[in-house]
């Protein structure tokens, strides 16, 4: 692979090395997303290099098995532009395929010690997809979608991308630093890291908005928090979505103490608007889930009745998230965020 001071540069011209394609086809390990229509043969325009777990004593790939940076970027765009749109397969299966192939992309980038703009381009697009997928699959059972593995991959991508940002300036750094803070909402270490960023980055509109959301959450200013949340674009709201359930839980706890009175009733329509819930009916169900009484289209807040429902489910949200997506293909949404 070259001298001790040289980094290997892959020479594989396609999304998958020919040797792997032949081997997986012979072993029957090609995914159905990689097959020619109506056959069990691999389609070279669809087969994508799969992730291979590192192991002690395992030989390093040869140069012809590594994809150079332009091929890696083309692979990512293929996955996010064509594979992600496959509506004929279960969404969790499509995601499992894309997630594995994106790990293989990052593995090739690691082996070649990719740095600078080529590496940033891969990581920003991977993060855009992973944030989108985390929202879209939030209601899937763990057997189909592992949220812990997904979280680990997201944090690893954020960590790697933010290391790249420290070495050189990149146009989209403020936007992705903001996504990092929103995804890690309320975590002191994430806030500390963001506050150490250079002044021009910290003063950007994206990061100022993310900081405002974070402060509103920490101050338990729920009216401001949900108002700011509703104004966020698609990818930032996807980053923040995992905190939606806990935020609503804390808001109802705050109201149960602040408005606790036997004859005090709060209209569900007003509360649903305040907490950005899709409908008064969904708001009523959320209140009942927390032990609160719902009567004649209103909730009765009593601190003695409030209960912790335990595990909070992160459901889909038409108002907060789906309405921000628009009709544009996902690849276009992510490319806009990266350019």
Automatic annotation (TrEMBL):
<dbReference type="InterPro" id="IPR005062">
    <property type="entry name" value="SAC3/GANP/THP3_conserved"/>
</dbReference>
<dbReference type="InterPro" id="IPR045107">
    <property type="entry name" value="SAC3/GANP/THP3"/>
</dbReference>
<dbReference type="GO" id="GO:0005634">
    <property type="term" value="C:nucleus"/>
</dbReference>
<feature type="domain" description="SAC3/GANP/THP3 conserved">
    <location>
        <begin position="15"/>
        <end position="294"/>
    </location>
</feature>
<dbReference type="GO" id="GO:0051298">
    <property type="term" value="P:centrosome duplication"/>
</dbReference>
<dbReference type="GO" id="GO:0005819">
    <property type="term" value="C:spindle"/>
</dbReference>
<dbReference type="GO" id="GO:0005813">
    <property type="term" value="C:centrosome"/>
</dbReference>
<dbReference type="Pfam" id="PF03399">
    <property type="entry name" value="SAC3_GANP"/>
</dbReference>
<dbReference type="GO" id="GO:0051225">
    <property type="term" value="P:spindle assembly"/>
</dbReference>
<protein>
    <submittedName>
        <fullName>SAC3 domain containing 1</fullName>
    </submittedName>
</protein>
